[in-house]
Amino acid sequence: TLIIGVMAVQGAFLEHQVALKGAAEQISQRPKLVVREVRHAADITSDIQGLIIPGGESTTMSLFLRRNNMEKPLEEWIGQKNHVTWGTCAGMILLSKQLEHQKEGGQSSLGVTDTLVSRNYFGRQVDSFEADLAITNPELLNDPHQKKEYSRGVFIRAPAVLEVNDPSVEVLAAMRLSEKDAPVVVAFRQGNVLSTAFHPELTEDLRWHRYFLNMVLSCS
Ligand code: GLN
């Protein structure tokens, strides 16, 4: 049995649950999946093996975490070797150690990944859009369940990674807004933490959920 927690404060947590179930069926081990919604500090239990922090609004989410005394238990949970965390969009922001334009005493993040993230990197130009991702990880390429070699990313006021500050950060996907723009990192993995700037749970493409479940399987 795989126990996966999905932070259910705001954002597309129901879509993540559906995608997780679909992805579990595509994995050869066919793990039996139990999905738990995480809303309170007491929900953050060590038997949860993987945790998704979905998109939403990172300031609202970090305030919620602080008011409900969830920051410390979350940081401790994430720090365990056998626990896998996946942040999508606002989740990526919350997990990043550094944020662009971070004010003193302002928004706190969980401070896990060695990255500098811009909270609204694309939002300045376009609110929401879809784009093809340049996937740089072979496990994620050539998906047998999709007839295409690229993954389509749904970006909603999306963040992006401006700087990677540790060699243990593995870039998984980049994208460019136009031919003349330089590619920007939109997915990476650092140890047991996965971060994506886009929303795979809003597409039919389950490769990211499968990748996450395989991370959990190989960690526990
Ligand atoms: N840019 C948003 C923020 O600052 C995140 C948007 C999203 O999660 N879709 O939180």
TrEMBL record:
Catalyses which reaction(s): L-glutamine + H2O = L-glutamate + NH4(+)
A Pfam family recorded for this sequence: SNO
Entry keyword Hydrolase: yes
Keyword match Lyase: yes
Protein name in the entry: glutaminase
Positions of the catalytic residues: 89 (nucleophile), 199 (charge relay system), 201 (charge relay system)
Enzyme class (EC, first level): hydrolase
Lineage: Eukaryota, Metazoa, Spiralia, Lophotrochozoa, Mollusca
The species this protein was found in: Batillaria attramentaria
Family: Belongs to the glutaminase PdxT/SNO family.
UniProt-listed NCBIfam families: PLP_synth_Pdx2 (TIGR03800)
Record CDD domains: GATase1_PB
Gene3D superfamilies per the UniProt record, alphabetical: 3.40.50.880
Molecular function per GO: glutaminase activity; lyase activity
Enzyme Commission (EC) number: 3.5.1.2
Binding site for L-glutamine: 56-58, 119, 156-157
Keywords: Glutamine amidotransferase, Hydrolase, Lyase, Pyridoxal phosphate
PROSITE patterns in the record: GATASE_TYPE_1, PDXT_SNO_1, PDXT_SNO_2
PANTHER family according to UniProt: PYRIDOXAL 5'-PHOSPHATE SYNTHASE SUBUNIT SNO, PYRIDOXAL 5'-PHOSPHATE SYNTHASE SUBUNIT SNO1-RELATED
InterPro entries reported for this sequence: Class_I_gatase-like, PdxT/SNO, PdxT/SNO_CS
